[in-house]
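Input sequence (439 aa), recorded before submission:
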Amino acid sequence: MLSYLLAPRSTVLDLLEGDDDASVGPESATGWTVAWFEDPDLIEEIRTAILVDEAGEVEIALGVRRDGVTRSWSWAVDEDEKCVDDADGVVEVGDGESLADEDGAARELAAALGAPDEIRSALRELLAQRREPDSFVDRLATLTGLPAPSPPHPVRALVLSRTTPAATRLTGQIAATGLGDIALADLGDGWSGLLMLENPDLGPQLADAVGRFIAAQGLRSRKKLALLLWRGENGAAGFELHRGENLYAAHSWGTGWTDIVSAELSVRDAFAEELFVLAPDAPEHRPRLRSLMRADTRDRDPLAELVDLLDLPSDAIAVLAPGVDGTAAAPWDDPPVPLELLEPAGLGRFLRGLVTGRGLPPLAPRWVLRAYGALCASLSLLSALWAATKTLVVATDGAIVDQPTATAGDWIFLCVAVVATVVNAVIAAGSFLQARAAE
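Predicted structure, token format:
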């Protein structure tokens, strides 16, 4: 539930302490603090508030509290404004009234905000439009000067991994199928980056995809991490650290928002320890890294500081620069590092990469792949000899082994041997090809 509370931000943070799902945004010049949480009882002592709840994108409930008394209204989204497919869910704030009279709701809103008559007229018009939830709250904030209902959106996103460009290429090509245009950056020193040319807000999904692909690829922890760096509107910035399918650490600077679950200093210190896996050879940087994690704002560029402390390729910051931009047809003219616009790839290319070892990180260390390939090659040879023997039995109708005739069991064994020969040969070839790319 989205809430605008007429209270200092520090008070709201104290009231929501312990609600791990809550997040608190900035405080406006007029004293309103924005927050997201589920239990309205947590802010019962705040006497003036505006509460907005929703059931999917189907129904909106608006509650206005003045002097501790809450009036509420609910309405269905106008289908002409927003088409919806799912009508599950019930919204309740207080007793609830149908929004048959927009004047009453607009009057309560304007009174709570201390807004003039022209704002009340604009609020009445907004309520009459029956907009879908996101559009409604965005327009409400714009009209009234309330804080934005969500953190700044990412405008640049780069996913780093300690894998070669050759090993990252297919991962980016598969991700580009659903996430939009992606460019591959060779950052040097064994690092590669996937830069999102569109839909940077989907950066966590790309980091999750990269993390999944490299999770079981190497025995060293540094090989199992995907680091998302992003820049947002108005100087906001942040990171996410993915390991496999799990998000291990995330923090942002300059957004004005605080997630209650990560507000404790002990949690911030734990984030620093997770990041420190990337730079185990620089223990002198641990205090500075903790300081960076504990801060919500920074005088210098926090991403540049993070890259420096973790000894990551400095070109990562250059790739994230606002001037590095372009389209699928014509990327930037003078990229700071070699870049390759990736062509989207489907399941077929992924399966070919899995068999041939091209475009995927190695599945294991080189010696393991070679040993496994040799084992599969030996099994393939034995299966081929078995298949040849059974072929002679069937061809001579059992005479070669003094049988009166070939049996159904001979045919079954022959089919199994042929399949085993082919499967083991393919696996052996794939293992040897994978070993060529392994470290």
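Checked by second reader. The mean pLDDT is 83.
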